Amino acid sequence: METLESELTCPICLELFEDPLLLPCAHSLCFNCAHRILVSHCSTSKPLESISAFQCPTCRYVITLNHRGLEGLKRNVTLQNIIDRFQKASLSGPNSPTESRRLQPQRPYTATISGTIAGTIGGSGGTSGGSARGSPATSSHSHSHANHANHANHANHTNHTNANHSPAVVAKMDPRISCQFCEQDPPREAVKTCVTCEVSYCDRCLRATHPNKKPFTSHRLVEPVPDTHIRGLTCLEHENEKVNMYCLVDDQLICALCKLVGRHREHQVSSLTERFDKLKAYQVSPGRVSDAVMEASKTSAAQTLENNLTNLVKRNSELENQMAKLIQICQQVEVNTAMHEAKLVEECDELVEIIRQRKQVIAVKIKESKVMKLRKLAQQIANCRQCLERSSALITQAEQSLKENDHARFLQTARNVAERVAMATASSQVLIPDVNLNEAFDNFALDFSREKKILEGLDYLTAPNPPSIRDELCTASHDTITVHWTSEDEFSVTSYELQYTIYTGQTNFISLYNSADSWMIVPNIKQNHYTVHGLQSGTRYIFFVKAINQAGSRNSEPARLKTNSQPFKLDPKTAHKKLRLSNDCLTMEKDESSLKKSHTPERFSGTGSYGAAGNVFIDSGCHYWEVLLGASTWYAIGVAYKSAPKNEWSGKNSSSWVFSRCNNNFMVRHDGKEMLVEASLQLRRLGVLLDYDNNSLSFYDAMNSQHIHTFEVSFLLPVVPTFMIWNKSVMILSGLPVPDFVDGVASDLQEQQQQQMGLCRQESPYLTGMKTCH
Q1: Where is the composition biased (Gly residues) (predicted)?
Q2: Alpha-carbon span 617 to 568, nearest angstrom
Q3: What is the pTM of this model?
Q4: Reduced to 3 states, what is the DSSP secondary structure of residue 712?
Q5: Under 8 Å between Cβ of 480 and 535
Q6: What's the chain's Rg over C-alpha atoms?
Q7: What is the rounded distance in angstroms from the CA atom of residue 123 to the CA atom of residue 148?
Q8: Residue 482 has pLDDT above 90, yes or no
Q9: Torsion of CA 670, 673, 679, 682, to 10 degrees
Q10: Dihedral sign, CA of 73, 77, 83, 87?
Q11: Quick one: DSSP state of residue 10?
């Protein structure tokens, strides 16, 4: 039976198949389980109706659905019939090992719990507090007959709960119900159950003992239900007495005896129906607020139960969704693992094939070398044999000559033999051929140690570790930034990708990174550095570096880098005729002798307006420059619109903002209004920070790293740096990076300056007149 049951078990829910579908791959699946698989693939952008395929959980075969979805698949009617017969056979043996598990409901148990609670309370709620006036027996008897409707409601609720289950589940939950009046053994199967009498009858006993006549006409007959479903809860203190009241003092179910003679006789009680209605749907009427307060504590338990049930149902739904996602991930893991295993086998087979081919090539080379060397050795052996034969013949002839006793014959042959022996000895190289030891093939070696080491290091490739941007190595100009980075997996990285965008002050880098529209991408970088051109001057940028290989990619931590300020020089066309500019246009000096300069609209020309402007107009970014003041004690330095008047002091109009010194007094001036500020008399290097994007113009004592003043200005037009002097000379340094002390200005100074600028708009702290230096 256990083997058969395993064959009839769904691979998803691990229960007997319920409404099985026959898949095209010949496997089966519960309809609800198939539906859950489709639900697990759903998302906000991919509704359930758009899913047209899923994988068989057994063989991974892709099941394609038509426009009808799961309804388009065939039902496995044969399998369902087998399961039905198997269930009947199992139910006939109550002690079967699988019976207890099979009797449990297949549906989500929260509905069963809530239905059982509702059925228990509703089915016993027909007795009011006044039913306790008679004797216990009378009360029990009258309760049994007078409240048949409530028992019928309970039976209906039970039937309704059972109706929510499929026939297969009902068969597991409700085995065969026998008649309780039959005297034969075994009793016949019941056809009706009387909720009022709490007895189940077969057809014969029903006609005989429970006719459709008075007093039975008011009884409620229902389809057969188990005896435990129609009997109410019994009292804990009085055996065989059913609970029919609710004690409001102790929050406890009680019977009639508890109210008459028990410890609850002085307590306030309520009928089960009334209490059930209050706990199930509690509402406060406008005229009974005080009663509601009194009842609040007593309803807390039921409300907690209702809330817990709601939370449990919600949690079950979340768990089902989570389980569906986990199942989907498991399926994806299976698919990916199978894919990688197949790829591993393929790659290893290719390596084995390469080794096999190389083995054949090297074996052929060895055989060819063997044949060539043996051929050469055979030739040498033949030469040696020929020389040996000649030498042996000569030796024999010489020995015979030496044995000759006839003087005449010896003299006749000896000379010829002696010459031949001398020639043979002299040509020893001919007689004894050279032997090449390399022909022995003993200097040939097969060394695959390097290849073996590589093969031992075979492993699957992973995405490289995130690279790290080296801020201390990065450099910048006014329109370029060179980014340097390092990587721990440099040899496994195929290429790098650099991404950058303007930094807007957003601290959530993940959200900033996800807004892909604003990012510039430089792909396929092979080095560990890259120079980005065409950037805005004085602007902060966010940089990411992505390390890429075949397995994937990983991003570095973000780095904030900034281009330098816009470099500029003094524009000779704007310089006052009593100012002398250096050849590099970085220094201006007051010269009382009037220089010959043509008059142009952009030239400073007013009496006392000894000024010059920079040769750049700034309309974005954050820019910093410094002015070396030297011994000058009378100057005005700031910015102005192009439309600012050139025949008056800078700051005297609404189009210019300056920091000025007049002997020992320091002040800021705008729109003809001045305000004294504190600064050191030893001020020799003035820093100017123009943050056009954030609408501010600040002045600093660059040598002492001190903040002097900040203008809060909503710039409407491009501005140009302006410089005025009335004695000595000044020198400008432009294109500088913003120093660290500027970013670290104390917040209280910034707030103080902002407050002062707020008062400036109200004209309260400013002098209405303009101080004049003589």
Answers
A1: 120-132
A2: 9
A3: 0.43
A4: strand
A5: yes
A6: 53
A7: 10
A8: yes
A9: 80
A10: positive
A11: -
